[in-house]
Amino acid sequence: MRTKASEHPNQHTPVSTPKENHNIQTQIEPSSKVIMSTSITIPLEKSSKIHAPAPKTVSFPNNSSLKHSLFLVTLFIFLLLFIQFKALESPLHFSWPLLGSQLSDQDITSMLRDSVTFLPLKDLRFSKEPESGHTWFMSSVNDTFEPNESEYLYFPSNSSKGRLLCFSAHDPHDGAKNSYAFAWHEVLPHGAILLPGLTYVSDTYYDHSNLWHGLNAIAPFIAWNMRKGCVAPARWVLFHWGELRTEMGNWVNTIAEVAIGKAEIETFKGIEGPKCFEEAVVFRHNHGAMSEARVREVYDRIRCKAREFCKVEMDKIRDKKDVQMTLFLRTGARSFKNESVVVSVFEEECRKAGNCRVKVEKTDNLSFCDQVRLMSETDILVTPHGAQMTNILFMERNSSVMEFYPKGWEDLAGVGQYVYKWLSDWAGMRHQGVWRDPEGPPCPDPSDKLQCFFDFKDRQIGHDPAYFSTWASKVLQDMKEHRQAISVNGNDLSATRTNFCQCGTSV
């Protein structure tokens, strides 16, 4: 007989009262399949009623399904082992185009050309400190340093991985629009032209026209030329703030030609694409890290080569017994208000000293060689502050310099007012001090210091006869004592001799 539980297998027997015992009922079918039905009586509170969840049924795959799965897994493992074995016997060959073994030389060349990256010559990220460190000109490249020399860049070199320097630079107004890149000789950028020989690349924060600024810009190239066999470059490439410049001032250009050799200034006219240089040296710090002794050697070479170029006969000049005092006067800005009074004061002191003569010249009346010859003859230079003072490097060592300023310069001009004191020291002269005019109208707006400086900058210079007389007398006496020391001890070994014009000669 079947129980009620077997007739309704998904139903449970009612839960008995707490007083009833647990009942377990089991029925065995004739087919020997066993179905178990369990009835559990749980003591509950009178107000509670619990319904147990239906039993979960777990199914297992039959034997045929399991055998089929095992067969597939075994077959897959066998195939993997077979492929690996064949790969060891004969390496697989892929036709992936990026693998170098399958690229043609033309493909590689094209890819390398496309990989050349041009960067702005003037990096505006460094506009607050444009002259510091790597500067804002070609800022991605660090300088090379040599003892006592100005820092520089050279291409091709190890630092450039053997690559050449290339420019795409035509803009004369915005250096950020001009650009540079590096490329191997065999894979120059598309449309590039290779310029043969050595190229001098100069970037200056100032300019190549002013005598002082131009001299400082080309001085490191003269030093480079001296230590590299004095071989002239094929060309110059000039920049100011990364902006292309196509000329130097006449005086600066002449200095470059006599000290280094004649070379064209590249304008890039008619060249549309990039320009790459077979060899290039870049200076972007002016004197930079050059030692004072090295600067003096450079100036000695300039002096000697300029005298040689202008056919100045120094032996005759040195044989003269008189001291020459030269008044090198300006016209217009920073000229003396009363030149005749100033000239008469120095002429009188020269007469008192004896063995002395005064020569008066204007800065705007002389050619380059006239200036070289005049300064070579000068023992004492009397002149207002200005670019014409750069000519003092043509004077003999131990010559004297007397400098004059308008009112306002001391407080407003900054360190730039001392450049000719520095130049005198570097060139081996004796800077004998300055006179600053205390007279003149005040600045209209003292709160605007820059405008005040512009107001004072080009004023004329007054005079103080008593002070000038005392000052001139002292400087003349110093020069006479120096001359006497030379006559006692023999030739002045510090003077520049013509043999120092030879390449590689140091003094």
From TrEMBL:
It is found in: Golgi apparatus membrane. Residues 303-402 form the Glycosyltransferase 61 catalytic domain. Pathway: Glycan metabolism. Its main location: Golgi. InterPro entries: Glyco_transf_61_cat, Glycosyltransferase_61. The lineage of its organism: Eukaryota, Viridiplantae, Streptophyta, Embryophyta, Tracheophyta. GO terms for molecular function: pentosyltransferase activity. It comes from Rhynchospora breviuscula. Residues 1-24 are annotated as: Disordered. Keywords: Glycoprotein, Glycosyltransferase, Membrane, Transferase, Transmembrane, Transmembrane helix. One of its GO terms (cellular component) is Golgi membrane. The chain crosses the membrane at residues 70-88. This is Glycosyltransferase 61 catalytic domain-containing protein. Residues 1-10 have a biased composition (Basic and acidic residues).
